[in-house]
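Still learning folds. Look over my entry:

…
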Amino acid sequence: MAKSINDAGTSIFRTMLKYKASARGHTYIEVSEYLSTQICSSCGEVPASAPKGVKDLGVREWVCSICNAVHDRDVNAAMNILRFGRESLVS
């Protein structure tokens, strides 16, 4: 039951964002957050050192084994989601 309430809340939130964006002349795009925490926002690769799956949810910071960039998990995901959105505007 709690999951369905959470899903309904997320759906309403997205609907409100879409409405507010269009009312102000902005673009609203939903992008997939798939692998957003694992892809290095600096080099764009999925390194072996990236946190993976449920067992690594506690890993908050990690270092890319390819380009040696240090990432905060949430900031890295936010940067990747922003990039996904910008790329979907171009295509």
